[in-house]
């Protein structure tokens, strides 16, 4: 199921069942009725806030804290039905920006403690959270929420030794370059062969873009920035500099692509692949974009162009 579709609407999907007969074989009509009842099950509906709870924040917090009260964790057929289980996960994640961090962490812990009753159910929720919070193509991807999830997961006692090592290695990288922290400095060479560094870029704001030559998404982003009057205005005023860095170190590929990078950008190459090999930045996909302040404090991490443009419209 497309994550974008499930995020915007409840898509009606057919239910695929594995059906087996027990020793007391039911009649054909009875079996058909049972399957029809299962197919008739609609999306999960969480409890509503009681009328005596006052205030929007209190109501949202109540719904979040009681979101899974009526969810049938023991019916794996329903859990694995995308219209019931996966859509419930999407709706739940949609509440994340609306609640406080401590409430969010407690909610994640409570959900997965409930899911522990059945290993396949636990694995189902683990996969969905991994997919929606970490997949580069997910419209709900969020490193901070993913960090909370990994913190729980590592201490859950439900991971294989291999998975635990994987997530323990991932967590420190995930915590780097968070909004409000200082961006990690690194060196690169410029198109004229000079050595420079991120902190050498002087401007009120810096857009750091990790790109890959020939990447269609990168080319689309470059084109959008280059033709957008808003971006051109802040660049023209000297308020924003764009540092585009090819982190994979192949100088021949980088040089052959230089004409595709606008001349008023800084085009950099990480010849030693330090950013990648030392895990200085988490680059799940390209382009990966950061917005930094004048002193290189992270404002937006792994952002998109709409968020960056909105930032400049609001300052």
Description:
By secondary structure, this protein is of the alpha/beta class. The chain has helices at 3-8, 28-39, 56-65, 76-79, 82-94, 101-115, 119-134, 143-154, 161-174, 216-227, 229-236, 251-256, 274-277, 305-314, and strands at 187-190, 195-197, 205-210, 240-246, 266-269, 288-292, 298-303. It has a seven-stranded mixed sheet, covered by helices on one side. Helix 12 (251-256) links the parallel strand 4 and strand 5. Helix 7 runs antiparallel to helix 8 (143-154) and helix 8 runs antiparallel to helix 9 (161-174). The longest helix has 16 residues, at 119-134. Residues 1-22 form the signal peptide.
Outline: elongated
Order of helices and strands: HHHHHHHHHEEEHHEHEHEEH
Strand content: 5-15%
Rg over C-alpha atoms, rounded to the nearest angstrom: 24 Å
Multimeric organization: single chain
Can you lay out the helices and strands and say which pair or pack?
Layout: H1 3-8, H2 28-39, H3 56-65, H4 76-79, H5 82-94, H6 101-115, H7 119-134, H8 143-154, H9 161-174, E1 187-190, E2 195-197, E3 205-210, H10 216-227, H11 229-236, E4 240-246, H12 251-256, E5 266-269, H13 274-277, E6 288-292, E7 298-303, H14 305-314
Helix pairs in contact: 7-8, 8-9
């Amino acid at each position: 199921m497309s994550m974008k579709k499930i995020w915007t609407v409840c898509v009606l999907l057919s239910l695929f069942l594995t059906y087996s007969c027990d020793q007391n074989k039911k009649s054909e009509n009875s079996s058909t009725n049972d399957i029809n009842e299962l197919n008739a099950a609609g999306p999960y509906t969480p409890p509503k806030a009681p009328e005596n709870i006052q205030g929007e924040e209190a109501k949202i917090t109540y719904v979040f804290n009681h979101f899974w009260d009526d969810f049938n964790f023991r019916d794996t057929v329903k859990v694995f039905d995308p219209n019931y289980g996966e859509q419930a996960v999407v709706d739940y994640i949609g509440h994340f920006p609306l609640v406080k961090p401590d409430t969010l962490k407690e909610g994640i812990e409570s959900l997965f403690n409930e899911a522990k009753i059945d290993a396949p159910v636990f694995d189902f929720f683990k996969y969905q959270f991994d997919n929606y919070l970490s997949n580069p193509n997910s419209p709900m991807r969020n490193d901070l929420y993913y960090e909370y999830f990994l913190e729980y997961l590592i201490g859950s006692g439900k991971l294989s030794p291999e998975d635990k090592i994987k997530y323990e290695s991932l967590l420190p990288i995930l915590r780097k370059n968070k909004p409000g922290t200082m961006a990690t400095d690194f060196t690169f060479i410029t198109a004229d062969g000079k050595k420079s560094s991120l902190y050498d870029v002087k401007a009120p704001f810096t857009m750091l873009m990790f790109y890959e030559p020939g990447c269609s998404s990168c080319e689309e982003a470059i084109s959008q920035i280059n033709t957008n009057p808003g971006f051109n205005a802040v660049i023209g005023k000297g308020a924003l500099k764009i540092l585009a860095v090819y982190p994979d170190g192949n100088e021949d590929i980088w040089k052959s692509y230089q004409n595709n990078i606008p001349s008023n950008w800084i085009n950099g190459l990480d010849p030693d692949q330090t950013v990648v090999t030392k895990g200085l930045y988490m680059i799940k996909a390209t382009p990966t974009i950061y917005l930094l302040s004048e002193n290189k404090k992270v404002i937006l991490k792994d952002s998109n162009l709409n968020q960056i443009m909105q930032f400049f419209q609001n300052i």
